[in-house]
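Q: Structure for this?
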Amino acid sequence: MRFVDEFREPALITRTAQEIRRLADPTRHYRLMEVCGGHTHAIYRFGLKDLLPSNIELIHGPGCPVCVLPMGRIDDGLSLTEHPEVIFTAFGDMMRVPGTRGSPLEHKARGADVRIVYSPSDALKLAQTNPGRHVMFFAIGFETTAPSTALTLMRARSLGIRNFSVFCNHVTIIPAIRAILDSPDMRLDAFIGPGHVSTVIGCRPYEWIARNERKPIVVSGFEPLDMLESVMMLLRQLKEGRVEVENQYKRVVPWEGNRAALKAMAEVFQLRPYFEWRGMGFISQSALRLRDSYAEWDAEQRFQIPGVRVTDPKAAQCGEVLKGVLKPHQCKLFGNECTPERPVGALMVSSEGSCAAYYNYEHLKTAMVSSVASAL
Amino acid sequence: MELLTERENLALVDVGGVRRKIDVGLLEEEPVKVGDWVLIHVGFAMSKISEQDAADQMRVLAMLGEDEAAMREIEGYGLGERWAGTP
């Protein structure tokens, strides 16, 4: 349990929350989408919604890379473990995500060589130290992670390491936001923009959201005060009738992004014509594959991939939760058949998944939140 | 942060007393020097941040009780040294 006086400038948190209440029109209902799974986690972790007036609704977006990956891709990646020379590597948060025949960890329990890595560089190093084996890195993530995979592949090529490949599931955030805005059952007022994706892509790619869709967007940091400030900035725009891209996370996000990272991505990846997202269906030009010049390191070209398509378990409503149409607890399986210990869907696995975040934190009111909320 | 010569773009960073190797190849456009502060993601430096902002961030993580989780993650970045071979 944490206490109010432990927080940086608790008075500032209280003042920001009060300013949000002052700006919010009580006759209006606000629907703000936080695009990034890291923000969803922070909202539940710190109980931020309790600091907001009840007419401000936070809708959880699709920015959790583990959650949006359809089960077929997991099965496809795991199919490579049938090759005895293959070492399957992935980040830790992939390990418990269910495939049709179990998660990567369950495959490991049945004898497959499945290992956690913390960086794609670790997977490449593993290939160097195991020349008789083939190391496949199951790559996931938005633009935050894709440049690291790209640089690792560039290094593999320059060092001539040929017993290494990437099964690429990298996705891009803009087409997902576009798909949400095009969805007829989704009415949103504004966006809390992703923080770490924006360190790479910068703020310019969001300009069409303001210009064409007339929705304000504020790129936000992840601390409680960052997120409250971002909500306040959005409400100010809405109150003043402004529609702009603003950057609350200036200390980390440059407006132009990271050009070296974008260059590495452009060197290694090209857009797929379309890619399936869990719950959202096929979205055109929303994912990356390796360029032909990197075919030798592309697991999908080196190996025969079954290309399976699997529908999610019928009772699970991951898709509706991912699109923000349902809250996690409104899914029929939430908390009974689907828990972090025995997850049915990926949203219950990743710490950035809204179901896991809701399950772990929703009922834990920290002293900070209670005392600040009671001061409002 | 300290720059290493054993491989291009390799740097040694100190994160709350733990020293780890990270890759700084994504900061080519704003070259790093000894003493800089950087934001790290999956073993790669993603952007430079000011010393003041970095100190604030570390303090806030500690206050939120999230410093241990951050440290556990950082300890994983061995670029193959400690973790890659360990299932």
